[in-house]
Amino acid sequence: MITEFHMKMLHGGEEAAREIYHYCGDEMLTKLYFFRDADADAFAK
Fold this sequence. Notes:
This is Metal-dependent phosphohydrolase. The protein has one domain. The chain has 3 helices and no strands. Helix 1 crosses helix 3. The mean pLDDT is 77.
Protein backbone atom coordinates (compact mmCIF):
# COMPACT_ATOMS: atom_id res chain seq x y z
CA MET A 1 0.00 0.00 0.00
CA ILE A 2 2.76 2.48 0.85
CA THR A 3 4.49 1.74 -2.47
CA GLU A 4 1.24 2.35 -4.32
CA PHE A 5 0.79 5.70 -2.58
CA HIS A 6 4.41 6.62 -3.31
CA MET A 7 3.90 5.91 -7.02
CA LYS A 8 0.69 7.94 -6.99
CA MET A 9 2.58 10.86 -5.44
CA LEU A 10 5.22 10.68 -8.15
CA HIS A 11 2.85 10.43 -11.09
CA GLY A 12 -0.63 11.41 -9.94
CA GLY A 13 -0.30 15.08 -9.08
CA GLU A 14 -2.93 16.90 -7.06
CA GLU A 15 -5.62 14.27 -7.66
CA ALA A 16 -3.41 11.61 -6.07
CA ALA A 17 -2.64 13.90 -3.14
CA ARG A 18 -6.36 14.41 -2.49
CA GLU A 19 -6.98 10.65 -2.65
CA ILE A 20 -4.19 9.88 -0.18
CA TYR A 21 -5.40 12.65 2.14
CA HIS A 22 -8.92 11.20 1.99
CA TYR A 23 -7.76 7.68 2.89
CA CYS A 24 -4.83 8.33 5.24
CA GLY A 25 -4.93 11.90 6.48
CA ASP A 26 -2.47 14.73 6.51
CA GLU A 27 0.31 12.97 8.43
CA MET A 28 0.75 10.25 5.80
CA LEU A 29 0.53 12.80 3.00
CA THR A 30 3.28 14.88 4.61
CA LYS A 31 5.51 11.82 5.02
CA LEU A 32 5.04 10.85 1.39
CA TYR A 33 5.88 14.36 0.19
CA PHE A 34 9.02 14.31 2.34
CA PHE A 35 9.99 10.87 1.00
CA ARG A 36 9.36 11.99 -2.57
CA ASP A 37 11.56 15.07 -2.18
CA ALA A 38 14.32 13.13 -0.39
CA ASP A 39 14.19 10.47 -3.12
CA ALA A 40 14.53 13.10 -5.84
CA ASP A 41 17.48 14.69 -4.04
CA ALA A 42 19.24 11.33 -3.81
CA PHE A 43 18.97 10.75 -7.56
CA ALA A 44 20.07 14.30 -8.37
CA LYS A 45 23.43 13.82 -6.65
